[in-house]
Amino acid sequence: xxxxxxxxxxxxxxxxxxxxxxxxxxxxxxxxxxxxxxxxxxxxxxxxxxxxxxxxxxxxxxxxxxxxxxxxxxxxxxxxxxxxxxxxxxxxxxxxxxxxxxx
Length: 103
Hints:
Layout: H1 13-22, H2 29-50, H3 81-86, E1 91-92, E2 95-96
Antiparallel strand pairs: 1-2
Helix pairs in contact: 1-2
């Protein structure tokens, strides 16, 4: 793609092959055609998006109109260690024993 190209120009198979050569990628002719078609679809979509007037829209901090309310952050001591450790395969002195991973 040359620097003189306008937004209406399309990416050609030849340009894909040239870029692939520069990047040392193995791209064959049929794959280059497919890539060029896909890139041209994306560029067309970007042109469509660029043509939408968004001057009256406020930026969003969240995709949802309302923010999720956060629950109060306080500690609850509802963990039953004895019950949980009774289900564990191996426990010693109140600790869970796991297989050694690193030597």
